[in-house]
Amino acid sequence: SRATLFDAENKVNITFDDVAGLDEAKEEIKEIVDFLKNPKKYTDLGGKIPKGALLIGPPGTGKTLLAKAVAGEANVPFFSLSGSDFVEMFVGVGAARVRDLFRQAKEKAPCIIFIDEIDAIGRSRGRGMMPGANDERENTLNSLLVEMDGFGTDSGVIILAATNRPDVLDSALLRPGRFDRQISIDKPDIIGREAIFKVHLRRLKLGEDVDAKKLAAQTPGFAGAEIANVCNEAALIAARKNKQEVNMQDFQDAIDRVIGGLEKKNKLISPEE
Ligand code: ATP
Predict the structure, then answer these.
(1) Is the dihedral of CA 55, 59, 64, 66 positive or negative?
(2) Which end of the chain has the least Cβ crowding within 10 Å, N or C?
(3) Is 221 exposed, middle or buried (0-12, 13-18, 19+ CB in 10 A)?
(4) 225 Cβ inside 6 Å of ligand 1
(5) What's the CA-to-centroid distance between 133 and ligand 1, angstroms?
(6) pLDDT tens, residue by residue, 163-205
(7) Smallest Cα–Cα separation from 150: which of 116, 114, 102?
(8) Rounded to an integer, what is the distance from CA 200 to the centroid of its chain?
């Protein structure tokens, strides 16, 4: 049904408070919040508000979270779809979905459209290996380009897209008037990890021995998604032991479990090792 084509969360409760670290990215993206809140301030002076920004960074680093926080801060609706939904799609369906998304978004403007994994649609044209499937992806990409060109900068629709493969994107997507801003989001360092732990620890009933700094030191290489996972696992481990609070030992067990899960995943991805 139409309702399942994409999420139209009319109210987003996420704000910049929920996004830990990423100070530079937040600073850059604040401008977009201001465009959404006070478009006239910019257009009165003859400025053109950008249509889109690309969030670039590894999986699980908070790109989706940050895009939602923009909608939450500006108090506008959030429409999203994922590039991976467009893989293996029947002819014409992808392009129709994109048109439908933009039509609905324009009706609800000001708003955010978020396209996760845009590289699945926006891979440079003529680079795929399966000719048949590729044609349909190109149709989808073309309709995205047409839609982006088809509305004015004063329409109040801002498109955020996420990718961890900016190198494969079709250059047409990066032209002025399309995704002409790029915001990079890196894996957190130890300070960033501590901040992310603090955000996710807020939800738990903690013992006195729990120390975010120590947890950050024990989780090198973890992205935000893995840290969120550790916090949830720790609560489950403590609950299974019928405890009233989550202690450092539960976190240590959770970290081991998450590392174990990551190793398994890596083995599946690279069978030659
Ligand atoms: P993907 O590329 O895999 O879609 P992503 O970069 O969009 O990943 P998110 O989906 O935003 O990552 O992150 C997943 C979850 O991890 C978030 O919902 C949040 O719970 C947690 N998380 C990730 N980064 C942060 C962060 N900087 N601060 C707080 N929580 C974070």
Answers:
(1) negative
(2) N
(3) exposed
(4) yes
(5) 30
(6) 999 999 999 999 888 998 999 999 999 999 999 999 999 999 9
(7) 102
(8) 18
Residues 135 and 90: beta-carbon distance below 8 Å:
no
Question: Under a CB-based contact definition with an 8 Å cutoff, are residues 64 and 191 in contact?
Answer: no
228 CB near ligand 1 (under 6 Å)? yes
Bind-site residues: 57-64
Tell whether ligand 1 has an atom less than 6 A from the beta carbon of residue 62: yes
* Residue to mutate (ligand 1; options 15, 64, 160, 199; most atoms within 8 A of CB): 64
Find where tokens 């439908």 sit: 100
Any atom of ligand 1 within 6 Å of the Cβ of 162: yes
Determine if ligand 1 sits within 6 Å of the CB of residue 83: no
Report the nearest atom of ligand 1 relative to the CA of 55.
Answer: 6
Q: Is pLDDT larger for residue 120 or for residue 268?
A: 120
Dump pLDDT digits (tens) for 4-22: 445 555 578 899 999 999 9
Query: What ipTM goes with this model?
Result: 0.96
pLDDT at 254: 97
Closest by alpha carbon to 138, among 126, 150, 146?
126
> 36, exposed or middle or buried, with CB in 10 Å at 0-12, 13-18, 19+?
buried
Known binding residues for ATP: 57-64
